[in-house]
Each structure stands twice: as structure tokens, then as C-alpha cells.
Amino acid sequence: MLSLMPSNIKLILCAALLVLTAASCEEEFIDRDPVYSIDSENYFNSESDYYNALIAAYDLLQPSYLNVMLGEIASDNTLAGGESANDVIGIQQVDDMIHTPVNDQLDNIWDWMFAGVNRASFLLEFQDKIDFEGKAQLLAEARFLRAYYNFELVKWFGPIPLKETRFSLGDETSIPRSPVSAVYDFIEADLMAAISELAVTAPQVGRVSRGAAQALLGKVHLYQEEYTDAARLLQEVINSGNYRLTDDYDQIFELAGEHGPGSVFEVEYTDAEGAGFGCLQCSEGNVAVGFNGIRNYTGPLFDGGFSFNVPVQEVYDAFAPGDGRRDVAILNIDAWAEETGASFGIGFEHTGFYNRKYIARKGDSNIGDQNLTNPNNYRSIRYADVLLMAAEALNATGQDEQARDYLNQVRRRAFGDMDHDISASGDALRDFILAERRLELVGEGHRFFDLVRTGRAAAAIDGFTTGKHELFPIPFQEIQFSNGNWTQNPGY
Amino acid sequence: MPRFILFVVLLGANFGLFAQSFPLSGTVLDAESGDPLIGASVIVDEAVESGTLRGTVTDIDGSFQLADITTGTVLRITYTGFVPTTVTVASAEPLTISLGTDVQALDEVVVIGYGTQRKRSVTGAVSTVDSETIDELKPVKIEQALQGTVAGVNVTTQSGAPGAGLNIRIRGVATNGQNAPLVIIDGYQGDLSTVNPSDVATITVLKDAQAAVYGTIGANGVILITTKTGERNQPTQLRYNTYYGTQETSRSLNQLNATEYALLLNEAYAAGGQALPFPDASGLGFGTDYQDEVFENAPILSHDLTASGGSDKMTYSIGGSYLDQDGIIGGDKAGFSRATGRVALGVDLASRLKLSTNAIFTNISRRSLSEGGLGSVLFNALNAPPTLPLRDADGAFSLVPSTPGLGIEVINPAAQIANTFNDYTLNKLNGQATLDYSVVDGLTLTGRVGFNTSNSESRNFNKRLSYGGKVFDVTRSSVNQNRINDNNYSLDLYGTYVKTLGGNHNLTATLGTTVYRELGDGLFATGFDVPNNDFEFADLSLATGTSPEGARDVGSYSYDERRLSYFGRVQYDYAERYFLTAMLRRDASTKFGPENRTAYFPSFTAGWIALDGERLSGNSPIDLLKLRISYGILGNDQILNNGYIGTLSGEATYVFDGILVNGTAIGALPNPALQWEEAKKFNTGFDLNLLDYRVTITADYFVNTRDKLLISNIPVSGIVGTAAPGAAAPTVNAGAVRNSGLEFAINYRQRINSDWRVNLSYNFATLDNEVLEVNNGTGFIEGGGFGVGQLAPSRMEVGLPIGYFYGYQTDGIFQTAGEIEGAPSQTALGAAAQPGDLRYVDVNGDGVIDPNDRTYLGDPIADLTMGFNAQVEFRRFDFTAYAFASLGSEIVRNYERALSDVNRLDYYLQRWTGLGSTDEVPRVTTAATANQVFSDFYVEDGSFLRLQTVTLGYTLPLAIGKRDNSSLRLYFSGNNLLTVSNYLGYDPGASSGAPIGGGIDFGFYPIARSFLVGANLSL
């Protein structure tokens, strides 16, 4: 047997010393605190902690640019466009209604909206930790935001998992996709709680007001065809006297028109801080604006972009003569080039039209990336939208006179006269209201969902399959992650 | 070893004794060939009282003179590669001393981590590269000395730009995370990228479980660097090496000239139903060759100077070096310079206490150009239209028009170079001090402090400029600056006990501890509105503009990571024939979660000298046969810090009241169970020496299985919010990869006669990589990028090599409309097929071509790599050649922008133009096609053979004053003279190094071909 020589006292001593001195300090040495970091589970110790977490919950509104853009492209209003048939294949596929569960952009919408849900839930999870004056307002805003994100998710994907606190890893295998009705109940509960606490006037520009929460709840009811509730809530907004139609439709979409009298809720963007293609959700600018922009543009007023989301001739032609909205909403690039001497490029699926409401304007500082950092706020809920939704709800509950009044308010602004007032009733009036929604809101991301909820999508959209395309597929990998807990939407 | 005994022949048998001193002369010869040995040390072995050492070195004829010698004086003669010997002077007659070749193969000492071992006793897979090889290769960076010289070590360039990083992979890619090996410089953890190659004495590579003494940091293999020290009892020796040369690109791609380009464009436009862009293409000529415009001949210059020597109580080595290299693109805009200073001392403080210490100071300056992606200089050079003159009529750089066919992402590359302004400086001090205390005979205690401290600063100026509506336009000038401070230190304390029991039982036991800590921080800031829009004023002090309110123009980070390790090793052999080593290491690391903070890493190696020349009958050609086997478990801890803690490190920025507001949000999700990757390494092999040690063969077979792969940001369900800005999924131990292969190295060296000496070596390594497990729900992880907005082209997936290419398989070209009718629809890929388009294979057989038809298209891992090295000496001439080959890898051509008007490679001249014209290259058209999706059309064979270095040298005798032993060698050398490959791109040997997505070529900056003239002066 070979062993250390027991007689060698020196050796034993040295070895023992070596181990002992080192062992005693292991605990101290290794259990160091991470440098300059805050533990997420020991937060919410002051008012500012809640406020800071609320900012985080607002942050995910910005990536909803994709919902707006793709909601338009999916509809009959626009084509995907871009550089080539393979430029952002996910967008191209949605345009052609050939999208599958493998689609990066749909995956983004799922991921980003759930990220918003989770950030709002983080705040709500710790709502009882401390008390301070004004906490109710902050929590109400968080509830509104969670409702906003969940509403997007239910519009795009139908049944989704629900949880009062943050989702944690493993929930995807245990929490089922709640039926749409339960999702709406959850959204309504959040919004009702929010409405009761929200200030009528938001504490800062960009934060949510009571009117915005009411309008969203009205919209949520409208989507469920709960017309009485919808009409009540939307009329509360209308009758509050806090909003009116901006006099000139053209002013709404320029920088100066942000938060005008007709603005109920906007998603805030800035040209002050950008991001790269690796993290589009990180941009503080409106990414859709660069994507929508005119390809290879040189000329006045506008900046260039990637020529996605190009309006089709049919929607351009849908505007009646004298409708001032057409040339505000849709840029006829050939006419514009002829008028101003501007030059432009021809992208994929070039139609000759651009989504003028949301293309880049000159003079923005576009810090970061000029195409990803445009400051154009998304006018998420406009007063005209509220009027038209109210009109739709009232028409559905037989209150055509009030419905016509709201509709004609919108039309009078569009035409600048009362000669184009609608006098129809009943289903004919409904058709007029829905047609008006398309024209008033073209380019704003509502069209696809309006077509779906009114059952008109199959007739309007090429390739649309009833019973399938009302919902988008759950991302392929989510179905895999759920390990059998979730099933794919029908038809995919 | 009777064949190699020393001959001391005393000539002139005059035995008359003289009491007084006399001058002595003599000659030192090679016993085998009888040639004189030039530069052998002849030292008078006497008590050093005055502190000066007496001795000399042999001159060109092998002769020496010494004054003041008496009979009985003992001379010690040493010469590298020969057995050192001593001679007692018997008379004043000239001496002839013959030295036998050193059979160093066995007595050579190999560094194995926390100690050394005689080569004969090594039972792990250990390879070494000595300083002679490094001298021959003259690598600008030390990593290059491992390419082709060590079987199983593959070195790829990230770029040919001066100072660019290199990737070292020992026995393949084992993880989707960090695959770089551990680097130990003189016993402490260091960094290869800043090492001056001429400071390196040996590089030792631990490839198998031999590395297990490094526990949780050893899984990727270990590279041990020993820096140069002086030799005892040697007079001061000065060595000066220099070379100067010119570099040029090793490759230019064959592109279309202006006329070809115009005609091809016309064809494409016509096919797309558009007006011809060049109705008259005559007179366009060759146009502008943008590759020519960006590539240039660039100088490279190197000096290094070392003084070394020693007395019987101390050794010293002092050196300095300077390297200056311009880029083959951009010249000094891509310049790299490195200056180093080094001091190494070894001192016997007392008879039982030895100190060895060294310190190295490094200064690196570097400037760089955009490279390796869309928007890089080369990417622009390849895509800019040849019809565009370099400069316009006013002499300004032409703007690439923002037409649809050219897009907004291609700019004039020469303008891009001119408008790039940046600099980077690194100052680094590293070193170590080691105390060896011989407590009693057989027991040595070693204490060591090693440290690295480095500070870097960099500056990047974004000039306000316009390329005419391109994405690179800058509307507001700015300067980004940063300061980064990285430090680490390690403390080693270990004891080594050596004992021989009962004559044949030899035991070496090592027990010790290592404390390691790294800490540092970085500061970043941006200033806007640089005065005069000029680099000269680009500093935060002058650029006082800020971002709009609320935006942060500053940033910082800091870290503090620690590791505490204990290790023990027992090496036992019986009669130096049977060897057994067992090791155990315990690591506690801040990298791991509280649930798994400590880890144990056991390993063993064993060897048997089955045949030993001394015991064999006289005529056996075999000198030695050693069989080896090893198995061990090692770890990899190279993951992001604090992965087990949920921190508020996410991004939370929004806009209130029209200005940016910053809040707090959750960053990466924590994984409290986070632990190390586990590498199970099995190796078996043999070492065989033949024909009087002229032939050395080493062969190894290995199987390395990496379990519990640390997958950072592992894809998880989006419902947990990991897609939020600044958030990320947790790092999870969720995969396994296996690498196996065979390594073989053979070396033949012989002194043929007094004129000729040859040394030939060849090695190869095979590698078989397979992913065994990806436990993330989907069974695969995607990565890499191809084209614009396309699906990820690379995957890690069970049953396939890591990072394999995943896309559409093609089956030639559709020749007729009839063929298309009968084929599955390709519309889902972008457009319905037309004759002349690529025909894709319906892999899943569902009747349509869609993303579900993507499949394996190859992988970037070479199946076989080989190195071949030859050194031949003829009289005063020496010749060296090193070649390297890599076979069986694939590489993706991704430097072609899929736009209609960009320039193309000339293989498009063989495009499809009609029925039967080709079955390879699709038609050109401006209309939508599905030809641009990632398919095997873009995947090429990346096999290559490269002649890395060829050197021809001549050694001159040189007499300077009394130092008549000096020599001067002059040489010519060519690097990367020839690369044989079918690859269309610049460099088949380049890789980003990413485990998933490596081998996708965005226009890798080609390595330089260089021609050098150099001199080695020894005094």
C-alpha cells in the first residue's frame, strides 16, 4: 500500500494548513452580491418603484406597431410590398393568407403582447406591498394596459391563457387557453376596475385617461356584439365633453396633431432613441412608419422607407369624390412625383400608393436608425372611431337617429359639407357605418378585425377561408412548449 | 543508452602538467555527423566569486578559445538538442568534444498544469509546439502557431483584418455557448490574443482528461503557454529578430465587368418586363473594379529584441517587441500595432527557496472598418455597380444611386473607408510571481500570484454625412467613447511530494488550492455635434450635444466573479513502465446558482510502456511504444454572470409629456438550478518511437460527450415575457453534444549527412459531431442569418451536427413550363416558378414546397483536418514549409445582395438562358422569384488546402569584436501563398466562430498573403 509517509509530520501539517485556511473563507468569498443590481423579487418599496414598473408596462405598447401594420396588410386595404417576394416572408404570407404556425411576425405579436401582459401583472402582483397616495391611479393604468394587451391577443389568437400574476415557466404546460368569452370577462374586469380609478385627465401626456379606458371597454363589448353596453360606454366618452373631432382631418396625422382634441389614446413614439433590426421591440420610434415608407424616395415632405403596407387601387377608389380624406390617407406617388419632382423606387407589389398617415416625414432626427426611429404616434383610439363604434352599436340596438348623427358628424368633416349626410336606416345604415369605418380609419390597423367581427372577411379578402382565418395560428413553438396543453387554432 | 554516450577524445597525449594557467582551445562536434556545432556554450564551472561568469560560445567552425584555464578545470558544454556534458581539462592541448543528440523525446519536460512531467510519463493526450516552430511560422498572433501543427486543434480566422480575433477549437465544437479553450500563461489564467509570439517558449495543449486538474474551466481543453526565461550559467545572449513585408489580399472574386453587368441587367429587366436600363451597353468597357479600389498592398513590420542569460543562482530574460501592420483594406484605417515589454527573472533566494517571476506589458492600438455583414466595406465592394465611376466629375466619391435595384443599403465602399474614423487602445500588464520552497527532500511547496490588468479605450466618430438617402446617412455627428477596465488575479498554493518506494514505486502527489477572481467595469458615453464635423475634434469634451431629454447617452457595467478550487493529483508509476494518475478537483463558483454552487471533477489517466528499446534485442526498429488511456469529467462555466438571479436589468423606456422616461423592468429570467456544463472525455492512444527516435508517431481516439449544455436565452414560451426589451429567457442546462474522432501525428527527423538535415511531420484529425439532446420543447435551436428577412438558416438539432445548415434542397433548374406543371407549387416561397428557376425538392412529399420542406444542407464542421510541415537544412540554407488542409465542411455564400442591380459574381455568365443551357445557375430577372430563399444553391464545399508558410533562410557567420560566435540569418518568407479551394468566396477557412450560424459568409475579410524579408541576429 502506498501512502504518504506518516512519519513526515511536516508534510501532514502543510497539507492540513492548505485545506483549512482556504475552506474557512469559501463561504465569504463565493457568496458575494452581484454588483449594482436590484433583485426583482424585492422591489416595490417606494412610490417611484411602482411608477418605474408602470413605465415598463407602457413600453410594450410601442411594439404593437406590428399589430397595426399587419392588421392592415391582412385586410383588403393593402398589400405586403417590401423589396421582394421574400422580404419579411412572414408579412408576405399574412398578406396572401398563406400564413402557417411558423411565422416570425405572428410569433412576435404573441411574444410582445404577452410581455406587456406580464409587465402589467408584475405591478399588480405586488399591488398590496406598500401604500401611498396615488397608488390606485398607477394600478388602474396597469390594469388598462393589461386589458389593452389581452385584447390584442384575443383579437389575433382567440383563446389565450390567463393569470392574475406574472406567468412563470411551466405555466404553458398547465394553464389552459381560456375560451374567448372568459378572456373578454378578464379584460372587462380589468377595464372596469381601471375606469373607476383613472383620472379623467391623464396625469401626463401619453398616459391613459378614463375616457380611453371607457372607449376600449366599449370596443371590447362591440367585438362581443354586446351593443347595449358598447353604446353606453362609448356614449359616456362622447358625452363627457372631453373630446371633439379635430377640425381638419389632415392635421390629425402630422406631428403637430398629436394629442389633438380628437385623440382619446395614443401610443407614444419619439425620434430620440432608436434600436437595430436585432431588437425592433426596443425602438422608441414607430417602426411601422419606416416599413411603410416610400422606397428610395427623394423629394419634399416625406422620408424614404421600405415600401411595405401599400394601399390597393380599390381602397383609393372607394373614396367618393369630394372626400378630403383620400389624399390625406393615401399618397398617390405618381401624382406626387409629377407635382413635386420627387423620385421614388418600385418595390415588390408596387401599387402606386402609400399609407400617407404613417409614412416618414422629413425633419425628424431619427436617432439610431432613420427607418426605425420615426416619431409618429399611433392614434390608437380616435374620437371619430368612438363615434363610428357608437353609431354601429346604436344602430344595432335600433337607435338609428343617434347613430346617423354620429356617422354624419364624421362625414361632414370629411366632405366639409352636409350634402353627403347619410339618411339610411337599419341594415343599410349599418352598411354605411361599416363602409365609413374603412374610409375614416384606413391605414390604422382596424380593417381586418372589423371585417372578421362583422363576418365580411371572406367576401373581401382573397384567400380568406371561413372557419380558419378569423384567427391567426398559435406560434408553432408555443404549441410545442405547451407539451399538449394547448391545441392549435382550427385549420392550421 | 550506450549509443548516445558522450565521447571525449583527448588528442595529443601530452601529459605534462603545468601548475600555471594557460589558454585553451577546442572544437565541439556533432557526434553523429561530425559537423561542427556553432554557438554551443562552453562554460567554466567554478565557484562564482566575482559574480561574473566565464565562458564562451563556439564559432562558425565549432571552435572556441578560453583564457586562464588550469588543469582540472571543469567545462560544461551545452547545445540545444544535444546532451549537455562536462569535461575536465587535463592539459593545454586543444580539445575535441563530441556531443550526442539529445533523446529529448523522453527526457523533455512537459507542462501539465500545477506541475510538470517527463514526456515518458505523460499519459494524457498532450501536444506541444516549441519556440522553433513559432519562429518558423512567424505568426502575427500566437493562435496561428497552432494551425496545422497540432492534430485536433483547429484555428479559424474571424477576419483577415489586422488584429482580428481567431477561434481555437480543441477537438471540435462541443457547446452552443463558449467553445474557446482555457489559456494558462506561466500558471495563471490569461488571454492569448495579446501575447507576443516571440515571448513564447512552448505551447502545450491538453486535449483530454489530462486537463481535469482545471475542473470547471477545463472542458474546452487547455492551452498552457510558457514564456521564455534565461538559462543558468550562460553569458548574456542578445537576439534580435525583424522582418518587413508587404501584404495583399489572398483572393479577389471574379465579378462582372461593366459591359457584362449591363448586358446581364438588360436581360434581367427584359425578363421582368421592364425597360432596359442600358439600351446601349457598348463603350462601357470594364468600368470600375470596386474590389481593386478597396484592396491595397499594405506593409507589415516587426522587431523584437531579447537579452537573456544567467548565473548559477539566477536567470533573466528581458525583451521588447514592436509590430505594425496595415490592413489590406483601408491601409492604416485598419491598422494594428502592438508593443510589448517583458522581464523574467529566476532567483535562488536561498538554497531551498526559488523565486521566478515575470511581467509583460502590452500596448495594442487598432483601427477597424465595418466588416462581416450587410453594410461592410467588402459587402459594398461586391455589390456596387461597376458602371459607377469611383469618383464623380468633381472628384468626390460617387454616390451609389438609391434606385430600387440598388436599394438603400449599398454605398460606395471607397467613400465608406474614407468616412470611417475610430481608434482603440489597450494597455495591459500581466505577470506572475512564483515561490518554490523545498521543505524537505521530495516535498515542494509552491505559491503563486498571477495577475492581469488591462485598460482599454475606444472612440468612434460618426461623421455627419449623406450617401444620398442610404441607411448609412448620419444627420447628426456624434462620438462614442468607452473605457473598459478588466482585472483578474489568481492565487495558487500547492504542495508536490515526490517519493520512490522500494526502488520501483514512484509516487508524485500534488495537493493544492486556487483562488481566482475577476472584476472590472466599463463606461460608455456618446456626445453629439462634434465641432467642425471632424475626427480631430471628436471627443466628449468638445462634442457637447446631447440626445433629446430622457435618452441616456451613457452606460456602464461592472462585474465581480470568483472561483475557489481545491485539487489533488496522485501520479504513480512502477519502474517507469506502468503509469497511473488520478485527479480530483472541487470548484465553487459564483457563476452557478445556489442550488449547485460546488462541483467535483474526477479523472484518471493510465499508461503502459509496452515496448522499450533498452529491453529489446539490439536490432528492433522500435525504441518505445507507450499505450495510453484516460477518462475524466470536466466543466465549462463560461456563461453569463448572475444567471441565477432575477434582476431589474430590462429596458423600460417610454414617452410621457413628449420626452423619454426610463423605468425598471425585469431582465433575463433566473434559473436557480444553473450549473456547469459537464464534459465526459474519453481518450485512448499510443506513442511510438522508431528507428533511433527518428520517427515519432502519436495516435489518439477520443469520444467527448458534453452534457448539461448551458443554453443561454433558451427559447421558452413567450407568455413569460422574455421578448420584452432587455429581457431574456433563462440560461438552462438543456442539451448534449458528442464529438468523436481520430488523431494521428507522425514526425520524421534525420540528419542525413553533414550537409543535409530534414524534419518532416504530418498530422490529421477526424471529427464527428452529433447533437444528442436539445431539451427546450422544440428539439432545436435556430441561429444565424441569410439574406434579408429570411428564416434562420442554421440549427442545432438532435441527431445532426451542431450548427448544420437548414434550408431548401434544389434539384436543378426548371427547363420548361411543362416541368413546372408537373411539379409541386413553389408559390409559398415567394413566386410561382418559371422556366429557368430553381426547382426545389418536396422533402415531406405533401405536394407543395413550403417551409416544412427545409432540410439538412451540410454543416460547417470539417470532417478531416490535416497539417503537413517540412523543414530541410542544407549547409547554411534552411527551408521550411507549412501547409494545412480542411476537408468536408460546408460554407454559405451570403455576400450577394438579392437586389436586381447589384454587381454579381461571374458565375452568372453561365446562368440559365433557355432550354438545356444549364441545370445549375438560375435565370436572371427583376420579377419576383423564389430563387433567393436559402437553399443548397448557396451552400458550397468549404474544403481547402492552404500553404501557410514557406521560408528560405541563409545563416551567415558574423564576427563582431570578441563575440566571434554570433550569427546572422537572413530569410525570405511567404505566408498564405496559395489556397486551393472550389469555394467562390474569399476565404473558406473563415468563420464567425458562432456554434450556430458560423460558416455563413457575409464577405469575410480575406486573410492576407504576405511576402516578408527578415533577419535573425544572435550575439
Automatic annotation (TrEMBL), chain A:
Pfam families: SusD-like_3, SusD_RagB
Subcellular location per the Swiss-Prot or TrEMBL entry: Cell outer membrane
Keyword Cell inner membrane listed: no
TM spans (from-to): none
Record bears the keyword Membrane: yes
SUPFAM superfamilies, alphabetized: TPR-like
Keyword annotations: Cell outer membrane, Membrane, Signal
Domain RagB/SusD, first and last residues per copy: 340-492
Annotated signal peptide: 1-25
Domain SusD-like N-terminal: from-to ranges: 30-222
Protein family (similarity comment): Belongs to the SusD family.
Listed name of the protein: SusD-like protein P38
Source species of the chain: Neolewinella maritima
TrEMBL record, chain B:
UniProt entry tagged with the keyword Secreted: no
Record bears the keyword Signal: yes
Compartments in which it is found: Cell outer membrane
Domain of life: Bacteria
TonB-dependent receptor plug domain residues: 119-222
Keywords, in A-Z order: Cell outer membrane, Membrane, Receptor, Signal, TonB box, Transmembrane, Transmembrane beta strand, Transport
Record-linked Pfam families: CarbopepD_reg_2, Plug, TonB_dep_Rec_b-barrel
Main location: membrane
Signal peptide (UniProt feature, chain positions): none
Protein family according to the UniProt entry: Belongs to the TonB-dependent receptor family.
Protein name (record): TonB-dependent receptor P3
Annotated source species: Neolewinella maritima
